[in-house]
């Protein structure tokens, strides 16, 4: 969305290999949820009112909770030196977040469908 606005105002986008983007770690559930609330609302804003895009949104919302399971092997096999208990906690957060996001996607759709 930001890129679209920048281009609409005449800016050119380009790739710079030396560029680095960092994102702050979220240390608790509320901070993580706040981050994803914003991202999910922004994504909904891009598809709202587009019938086909809204159907894809609903499909994505339906599989969002299940998508956590595709990422569990990444958590288990990550090279970071973590205790197994920490990996299990990360998996729990992953599952909780994906389930929440799926529900939030349905909520946004139900609130704004057809408008």
The helix count comes to: 4
Reading the helices and strands in chain order gives HHHH
What percent of residues are in strands?
Answer: under 5%
Question: Could you give the count of β-strands?
Answer: 0
Could you explain the architecture of this structure?
With 115 residues, the chain is an all-alpha fold. Helix 3 (51-77) runs antiparallel to helix 4 (84-112). The chain has helices spanning 2-8, 29-47, 51-77, 84-112. The model has no long low-confidence stretch (mean pLDDT 92). Helices cover 71% and strands 0% of the residues. It is built from 4 helices and no strands. The longest helix has 29 residues, at 84-112. The radius of gyration is 17 Å and the shape is globular.
Summarize the structure.
The protein is an all-alpha fold and 115 residues long. The chain has four helices and no strands.
SSE topology sketch:
Elements: H1 2-8, H2 29-47, H3 51-77, H4 84-112
Which descriptors would you attach to this protein?
115 residues; mainly alpha; 4 helices
């Amino acid at each position: 969305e930001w890129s679209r606005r920048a281009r609409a105002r005449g800016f050119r986008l380009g790739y710079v290999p030396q560029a680095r983007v960092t994102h702050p770690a979220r240390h608790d559930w509320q901070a993580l949820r706040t981050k994803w609330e914003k991202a999910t609302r922004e994504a909904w804003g891009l598809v709202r009112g587009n019938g086909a895009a809204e159907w894809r949104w609903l499909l994505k919302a339906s599989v969002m909770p299940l998508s956590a399971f595709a990422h569990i092997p990444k958590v288990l096999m990550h090279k970071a030196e973590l205790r197994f208990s920490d990996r299990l906690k990360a998996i729990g957060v992953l599952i909780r977040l994906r389930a929440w996001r799926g529900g939030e996607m349905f909520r946004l759709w139900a609130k704004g469908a057809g408008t």
